[in-house]
Amino acid sequence: MMSDASTENGDILIAEEEDKLSSKTFASASLLLEDKDVRQSFMGSAGEQRNETQHHRPVGVRFLEYIRGAPFTFRTYQAIVLVLTFFAYASFHATRKTTSIVKSVLDPQTTELGFTHWSRFYFLGTVDGAQRNPGLNAGWAPFDTSDGTAMLGQIDVAFLSIYSLGMYFAGHLGDRFDLRVLLALGMAGTGIFTSLFGAGYWLNIHSFYYFLVVQMLAGLFQSTGWPSVVAVVGNWFGKKKRGLIMGIWNAHTSIGNISGSLIASALLKYGWGYSFAVPGLIIALFGLTVFLFLPVSPEKMGIENEEESQLKSPEKDGITQPLLDGRPNEKGRAVGFVEAWGIPGVAPFALCLFFSKLVAYTFLYWLPFYISHTAIDGKYLSDSTAGTLSTLFDVGGVVGGILAGHISDRLDARALTAASFMYCAIPALFFYRIYGSISLYWNVALMFVAGMFVNGPYALITTAVSADLGTHSSLKGNSRALATVTAIIDGTGSVGAAIGPLLTGYISANSWSAVFTMLMAAALVAGLLLTKLVVAEVTAKMESGGSRTGWPRRSSVPETLV
Questions:
Q1: 72 burial class (0-12, 13-18, 19+ CB within 10 angstroms)?
Q2: Max Cα separation, the chain?
């Protein structure tokens, strides 16, 4: 009996142990299966992410990396971005500058013969009845009439009006769609419609409305350029020395103006149509290059942002705050148009740029015309010579942009720097008007100085300031505002850029001195609009003591305005 009971108890214990072992085996097998599923899910997710990254990588970059046998480094991508965006926007300005060079050919000697520009407004009337001037040596109908200068001015304002309006929409699109595709399409469209303007020469087109519509469509495509290039550069570069780096990079504006002037002037002898067709072809080719090679952001390239990694290092002193703080939130909700206007500092800088670009674009569109119609040392220069000479204004602009960026970095005072340059532009413009006609040397020197002070704040506001405001602390790390803020600031400035050349077309009929008075007044207003920001900057620096530069580094937009 005892033996049977012991045997039975032993069998029960053995069964229980077998059940426990079976349960453990089943649990282990389940865990293995779950781990396998997790690994497969993770590998599948990683594979999808790699496929998505590969999809966003430009074809040209993939091809070069395939030939190279290794992916590009972060620094290499930065170099590619700087070079491509530099030449992309330089080509935009090269096509934009062409009109000012060709003006004197389309409408020769009108101002010198003393005709008024106030008699007709061609948006509302026809041009068939315009009085032709038999004293004109040459020209192109309908611009060789007594109102030719006003007609050219109205084409300028139509171009810039569509450009400024399109800028707001382009910024909205830039924060929501692929910047590489948007920029490439804008460049291709600009090339097509710039060439179509020149095609009027070979097709013997003399319709004012043909040239008007073509320029308006060119302005629409041009509006995609600035928000796109600033947003792409902002994705790759940090805050350290932002003003200096962007000041140097912003030389593309002046380089584009200079190259556009030289190309258009050199081709005038073959026919003014070539002065449009060649720059149009160049920007279209650069647009293709952008589409094939431009990397939009580190995330889309599947590469770590080294500047963001450096920010997290305890060895850093906080100066290298990344241009786009809170990178993980890049996919967050894009900032709306009205919301972007509410960012502290956007409105005063946008209005300041309105008057700053009014001055800058008046020179862009009318300086060659002014030089060719003003006696310098008792002599009048040819159209091509005047166009070439006008490039020195843009050379001064390159120096001014770099200086403004460097000074604003050293002082960490964007508003103070911009306002100071605008105030200095007033005497520079006055002396150029009064003493620029004494001799060619005086004209060159004073033109250079005027370009430096006029284009310096223009360059600073459209680059470093836009980047600062597009990543303002009030956005709480949301990086999807840079293109919108850039578009708001530059779009508002472009409204002034449209008004300046239009007013010049009319006012210059009576007096060029009146034109310069208008420009000096605009420079004064531009500086005054930043007064509140300047006072806040200076007060903040004085209250916070001093560093080796005299002022500690703080946010470019004083916190007192937040």
A1: middle
A2: 141
DSSP 407: H
Most confident of 279-293, 306-320, 346-360, 537-551: 279-293
Token code pair at residue 265: 């002037």
Q: How many CB atoms lie within 10 A of CB 363?
A: 27
426 has pLDDT over 90: yes
pLDDT tens string 53-84: 555 789 999 999 899 888 899 889 989 999 99
Q: Which tokens hold the place of 259? A: 């190259």
Report which of 496, 245, 204, 268 is spatially closest to residue 364, judged by C-alpha positions. 496
**Strands (E) located in 345-448:** none
Span 546-550, mean pLDDT? 48
Q: Give the length of the chain.
A: 562
Comparing CA positions, the residue from 365, 192, 189, 201 lying closest to residue 267 is 201
Residue type, 140: W
**Contact of 194 with 218, CB cutoff 8 Å:** yes
At residue 334, the pLDDT reads 56
CA nearest neighbour of 441 among 499, 385, 376: 376
Residue with tokens 């293709």: 288
Q: How far is CA 535 from CA 116, 415, 529, in A?
A: 45, 9, 11
Give the CB-side neighbour count of residue 279, counting CA atoms within 13 A: 38
Alpha-carbon distance of 501 to 522, in angstroms, equals: 13
In this prediction, residues 498-508 reach a mean pLDDT of 83
Residues whose CB falls within 8 Å of the CB of residue 182, separated by 6 or more in sequence, listed in order: 170, 173, 174, 224, 228
- How remote is the C-alpha of 541 from its chain's centroid? 30
Q: How far is the C-alpha of 117 from the C-alpha of 120, rounded, in Å?
A: 7
- Burial per residue of 30-61, b for 16 or more beta-carbon CB atoms within 10 angstroms, e otherwise: eeeeeeeeeeeeeeeeeeeeeeeeeeebbebb
Among residues of the chain, what percentage have pLDDT more than 70? Answer: 72
pTM: 0.69
Query: Facing residues of 132 across strands?
Result: 145
Residue 237 zone, left/alpha/beta (φ > 0; ψ -120 to 50; rest): beta
